[in-house]
Amino acid sequence: MTTRLKRPGRDVAPVKLREQAYEGYTRSLLSREIAPGQFVTQRELVNITGFPLGAIRELVPRLEAEGLIRTVPHRGMQVPQVDLNLVRNAFQFRLFMEEAAVRLYATEADPAAVAVLRASHERILARHEAGEEEGLMEDAEFVDLSLHEAIIDHLGNAIVSNAYRVNWIKIKLIRLSETRLYVPMIPSVIGEHFRIIEAIERRDPDAAAEAMAAHVDTARRRAVKL
User: Fold this and answer.
1) How many Å apart are CA 176 and CA 150, to the nearest integer?
2) Which residues have C-beta within 8 Å of that of residue 35, sequence separation ≥ 6?
3) What pLDDT is recorded for position 2?
4) Average pLDDT, whole number, for the chain?
5) What is the secondary structure of 127-169 as a DSSP string?
6) For 182-213, what is each residue's pLDDT tens digit?
7) Mean pLDDT over residues 136-152, rounded?
8) Which option is the CATH number for 12-78: 3.30.450.20, 1.50.10.10, 3.30.470.10, 1.10.10.10?
9) What is 84-224's CATH number?
10) How far apart are CA 223 and CA 226, in angstroms?
């Protein structure tokens, strides 16, 4: 029996298109082109994201598996609703993942990488104190995420990293529903991050885990006030 070999690159275009459709959906979700709790059809997703129907059809099972959309019988597909159930689940996931991950990071992190994280936080705080506004919110959110991703990605586990990023999309949805990292909150959030960074610099996993747990709990309590 002769086995036919697939030509190199044969599936590259379809895979790339599916990934682009996924990014288009999440971008539309976070930009509020698609509202939390909204019911949509595949045709509407085509119009919203600009991707062909075939890519959307292949995308839906992934979105369902990740909890980024759900099929409701006789009603269609529904975007996740921002409610107390989502807040509880998303922040509980964060706590379990990050409290354990930061313990390992505190004992193994490259001091140079930690220094880069500290410097990026110091720059954000300095810009806030100087009264700078242009681009500050976006840069602060980027720096915020960079610390958490560094801690999670240090595990070297693609399954964990991917699951964390999906959960972060849900966290972002929650923030967009009134609990965003507003500019006035920058000093307090950066201060919480500094306590985590300082514990990491001291190679103190217990203090790092305690600071991380307090940080996640503060964010959770803020979200519960929706």
Assistant:
1) 23
2) 79
3) 38
4) 88
5) HHHTT--TTHHHHHHHHHHHHHHHHHHTT--HHHHHHHHHHHH
6) 678 899 999 999 999 999 999 999 999 999 99
7) 94
8) 1.10.10.10
9) 1.20.120.530
10) 6
